[in-house]
Structures are given as C-alpha cells and as structure tokens.
Amino acid sequence: MQLPLSQGMYPEEFIAPMRAELTTLGFEELKTPEDVDQRLMEKGTTMVVVNSMCGCAARMARPGVKMALAESPVKPSRLTTVFAGQEREATDKARAYFTGYPPSSPSIALLRDGKLVYMMERWQIEGRPAPEIAADLVDALKQHC
User: The pTM is what?
Assistant: First the structure.
C-alpha cells in the first residue's frame, strides 16, 4: 500500500528527536512546497539539510552540520531543512532546486539567491566521520557566504 504524498513514512514520535537536532540549532523546517519556494528564493545564502531517518544522518550529517556551524566564521543567511520520507512534497520541491543532482538523503545544499552553489550528497557523507564533513562544510561556507 502506497501512502498519500502528504502522509509521512514514520510516526512523528520516532523522528521528533531527529528534527530537534536541527531546529535547536536554528533550522527552520520547510513542510510545504510553498514554504520551500518562499525561503529558497530569498536573497542571501540558504543552507538546506535534507534530513533523514538513516544512520548516516544521525552519526555523520547532523553532527557534521552542527560542528560546521560552530566552527565557521561565516554563516548562511538562513538555515532550513526538509525531512525525506515525511514531508515528501516539500522535499521534492527542495530537490528541484538541486539541479544536476539525483535525489539524495541525507544531503546538504547551499543556495545563493535561489541558485545552487554547493551540494554535498549522501555518497560524500556516508562512511565519513562528522569532523571531515564539518571541515568540507566550513570550506563551502567560507567560499559561498
């Protein structure tokens, strides 16, 4: 049985702590396609984390993002997140901004004025320690923010 697009794959109580790892850092959850368009088209630099239930999001991506934001001397104008498998329509809309890249979760993108300037895909996250991911993100933030 296939779930309707508006219904998430996981019970909210399972993913609430995963959402909180980013929202406590100041990330805004984008839950509708309209939310995505509104935020990603704004002037300035926007970080988009495609959050996920998988282990590499828990062990590598979210900790790497947290470390990068703590270490980087420059920050994006906005921190946003969509949750793969939960808000499917919003996630699909965000991925439409990641031109040239297949769907990937977790993943981390930087957009400037609505245009993709940096992308870290799952294959660049999976199997790498969070400090290495953070170092790559700090470099990207320095270059694009």
Answer: 0.92
